[in-house]
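Hi all, long-time lurker, first post. I run a small reading group and we've been trying to get comfortable going from sequence to structure in the token notation. Rather than ask abstract questions, I figured I'd post a concrete chain and ask someone more experienced to write out its structure so we can walk through it together at our next meeting. Sequence below, copied exactly:
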Amino acid sequence: MSFGKAAWLFVGSLCTVTTAAAAVLTIASPFTLVDNRVFLATRLDGKGPYAFLLDTGVDGWAVATSLAHDLAIAQGKAKRITGAGEARDTLHELKLRRVNLAGLSFTDQTALSADFAALDAVIGFRHFDGIAGKPVFDAYVVDLDFARSRVHFFSPAKYSAPANAKVIPFGLYEKAIPVVDGEIAGIKGRFLVDLGDRSSLTLFGPFWRAHHLERVFGPGVVAITGYGLGGPIKGELIRVPEFTLAGIPVRGIVARLSLQKSGVFNSAALAGSIGTGILKRFEVTFDYPRRRMLLAEEPGQDVPDEADRSGLWLGRKGREFEVFGVVPNSPAARSGIRTGDIITAINGVPTKRLDLFATRDELKSPGEDTDSFTLKRGSHSRVVTIALRDLLPRN
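-- Answer (accepted) --
Happy to help. Here is the structure in token form:
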């Protein structure tokens, strides 16, 4: 998974597919896109539905520790896992007797339990119950139609590629995560394809430093850009006029130069990670049995990425918003907002009535000039005005 990272690596998953229709039928299901992540309705042992992230960056299953506790699923051996953050987290093995994911049925699955509480707070999810990874992609050809918010699962034996799709072969990093060819500023590299990564493009530290890409695309904006296994994800946000994905030009990208000192984002074996910010511009099909990804162009594919204009990273504190990061010299910093402040209203509307992800999108909108924030610091409350401006020059 990602959360602004690259990959979570899980091991030891078993995959027994019991769906009778798998050999002959196509199964379709709606999905919900939340913060550039694909969530599917899922039941565990007949209970639910729960919200599971569909993720190419994970080689197994994960279940929220709180949900495993509620369902009285026994936790087994502990594992130390490294992700995009700089710390290592401890997860525990568990067994799932039956998983029903969007009409697909899997039995006797090995999973890991993970504490998603920090993600719920910093990212802002209201429902994040688990992750579905490589076992799903191994069993089915998975087609994601972002324009219609539908996913199709095909029997590999029955699937044939549409004529208008660009076929991109991929390898597997750590035997789990798709890796494809890409090119930026005339420099070629190998890139992870990570559905769990909310961003468009992440360039890993050894790669961008070796090619001095901070000089090519900078100056950027240093900020918290996400949160994943191991903690916050720090990066320098930049604008990239064009990135070439296996020969396909993708324009108008906001990318990040990873500033992580350890973890996956500091890997010298890869150039970076392609996230859902890019993938959602296409209809994307993952055909793991044939080691290929297919991209079909969609209308509006070249709509440029927007970037935050406030300098804030907002998360949740109960039903209100908490400031988890402030960019130095940004509009938010100049207004006096600090990390740890609680935002109780924006433009007079209580934050308990606001959607956090919609609020983040509004803080990117070029049509917005000023916003008033009611903030609470300790026992004191006051209203400040933020004069929004472009932190990244528009190409």
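A couple of things your group might point at:
The longest strand covers residues 231-245.
The domain at 166-297 is CATH 2.40.70.10 (Cathepsin D, subunit A; domain 1).
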